Structures are given as C-alpha cells and as structure tokens.
Amino acid sequence: MKYTFLFRRITDVDHVVPIIYSLLSNGVDPKKIYYTDYFIDKTTLNLKNDPRLKFLIKFNINFSQTFFNNYYKIVNNKKNYALKKLLNLSIFTYYKFISFYYFVKILKIILLTSYKNKIIVDELNHPFLLNLIKLLNKNVISVPHGIVLHNGELKDRSRNFSFILPDLRKLNKYKHLIFYNNISLHVHEYHISNLSILGTARYCKEWTEVQKSFYPKINALFKNNNLNVLFLLEKSNYIKIDNNDVEVIKSEEIYKTIDYIISSGKFNLIIKSHPSAKIDQKLENKKNVLIVDNDEDYKTFQLADYADITLGIKSGAICDAILLNKPFLLLDYCHPYDLIISEYLDKTNISESFEDFKIKLNHHNQIQKINSNFINKYLGAEGKNILNNYYNFLSKS
Question: Could you tell me the CATH number of the domain that includes residue 258?
C-alpha cells in the first residue's frame, strides 16, 4: 500500500506531518510515502528549512515541491525590480499556466493511484477533480485542517455565522472524511456516511512529545525577569458577508488588552500572528515586545512552551498551551461568538471581561493548567493514542 499526501500552505503541513509520522512510527516503509504540493503558496517558500520537514526527510520519505514556488523569491526581492515588474505584467498568464500545470499534476496522481493506495489531503477545492474522485471511486481521504472552538452562533443569538465554517455534509466526494470529535460543527446532528472520528493528530499528547525532540527550546527572548505573555492573534478581525466587512474580532478590545500588558511594565509581550496575516504596524517598535509574524522564527508550539501564560481569542492554536499544561486565557470579551468549548474548560481559563482578564493575568498562578476533560472530549483523546488511531485507520480503510 502506498500513501500520497498533498499540501499547499504551511498550515497544511501543521496537520499532515503528524499523520505521516504515525505511519512511519508504526513501521510503514518510507519509500511508500509521497509528500508533494498541489499549488504554490508564499507560506511554504522556505519549507525545506522547516524542522518538521527535516524530521520527516530523515526517514527518507519521497518529498517534492514544484519549483514554481520560487516565484515568491522574485516578488519578495527588491533587487529584481525589472523581473518583478515583468512578472506583474504577465501575472494573469502566469497563474493560468501554473493552475493548469497543477491541475494536470493532481489529475495524473488521481488517475494513476490504484484503489489499494491512498491520497490524503485536507481539501482540494476543485469541483472537477472532486467529481472525478467520486466517479472513479478513488480512495481519497480528507483530514482535519485545524479545529474550531465555536459553531458560528453569537452569544446574543442575534445572528448565526455558521455558514463561514466548513459543512462536512458537503465533503461527500471523498471516500473517507476524518474529523476530530462529534461536538464541533453540529456533527452529532447529521448522518454523514463517510465520516470517521479519530481525534486531532496535530493537537495530541503523542505529537506534542515528538515535537520536543526536534524543536529547540527557547531560553531567553528578553533581558529581564518579567512575566512572558504570548498573545495569539487571529488571521483577520473581519469576515466578508454580502461584500461587506463584518467585524468579528473586537479590535478596540485587542488594543486595550495589548496596551495594558505593555504599559504595566511587569510583562514581556510576544505577539504571534497567523502565518497568512499582516501584523499591525502600531504594534512595532514597542519596548519589551517581540512580534513573530511568520513560522520560520518560532513556531507557536515553541512560544507556548517558553511563555509563562498564553492568551488566545478563538483560535485552535491555544491547544499547544493546553497540551503543554501551561497557563492560558481565552479572551471571551474580544469576540461575539458563543464558545462551545467553555463547558470543557476550567472557568479560570476564560476571561469574560477586560477587568476579569486583568485580575487573572495578575494572578496567573491560580489559572488551571490541567484540562484533561477538554483533551479527552474535544480533542478526541479519550485515553487513546491518537496517532495510532490514524495509522490503524489508514492501514485498513
């Protein structure tokens, strides 16, 4: 049996590498694993330097990344002004060409993959290829891309934004659809014939321990003894509805929170932005503030391990701190969503107001560090080895 894994963005790598490792750690021949890109993306420009990929390559898996991604090196290099301008003028033609190239590449993979072999991806987003997969009954498996902490409902029930979240019922073209629990996205309310609940490979205790082996531990980012606070920002503060930007992250509350941390003089602030987001220039050049705007400097896992406390809003990235048994706070007052994870977390881990946040930050030692209920119920552990879950499923399905 052979396995083909597909990626585009660096966030795809986050969630697929643990699954590849689950196969390798259970004795699957690395020569039977092929890992390749299905489109270009600037977040994977320096992917070959990523510790996770280096870790996999040591096992001698088959890895390839198309040279088209070098386009971003030209675009980001100010010295190549003439070439960059030429590319900008021909950008439409260029994208049409590479789109066709990747279409042919993935089409070839699909057509040449026998039923016994498997293709694993988060989501292809190509109607023709998905219909072809269904028509030919190819063994293509969709795996979770991150986790969500809400179902789209607002606290005041004035609106419901569930339409911005994945609808698993629409992923019926895949032979198998893997998900991490039966709580998120109202999964328990539907009958989805191709669905299997395996937990989340990215956020599990087993993978957390493996990451410690190849991510260097951060020793000191600041030359003082202040408390180190990690703040995980969202990809965007807005969502697009009917061509209008609707604010779903309260920017004013975010800046008020950041200003408090900085002005107190008692804390060092590490701001980690989403790999696809742009950092606000207002936050730059502040004393005792470090901005990490890409995954090449430090991963969220490393920063969460280093920080004394991690702050999150509604992103699943907070799970790194949870799995490391580190203090964390979800700033519930910075967004309008009804967090469905609230019933699985200790109340000390959720700040319902700015005042509540200040109290809990200044008494961070009283914040709950162990959240076994969340890990077992929401992340799907339930006393099982999640990586083995994936291996067992992929080796038999």
Answer: 3.40.50.2000
Residue 91 domain-assigned? Answer: yes
Check pLDDT > 90 for residue 31: yes
Cα-based angle 206, 210, 215 (whole degrees, multiple of 5): 140
3-class DSSP assignment, residue 206? helix
Burial status of residue 256 (CB atoms within 10 A of its CB: 0-12, 13-18, 19 or more): middle
Q: What is the pTM of this model?
A: 0.91
Element (H, E) at 7: strand 3-7
Whether residue 265 is predicted with pLDDT greater than 60 in this model: the reply is yes
Count the domains in the chain. 2
N-to-C CA span, the chain: 11
Mean of the pLDDT values across residues 26-38?
97
CA distances from 351 to 229, 306, 365 (A): 15, 22, 15
Domain with residue 80: its CATH number is 3.40.50
- Specify the pLDDT at position 106: 96
- CA dist 176 and 194 (Å) reads 5
Give the pair of three-digit tokens for residue 164: 């911005």
Q: Which domain holds residue 294?
A: 218-370
Q: Which residues on neighbouring strands pair with residue 4, listed in sequence order? A: 34, 119
The yes-or-no verdict on residue 90 having pLDDT over 70 is: no
Residue 229 lies in a domain: yes
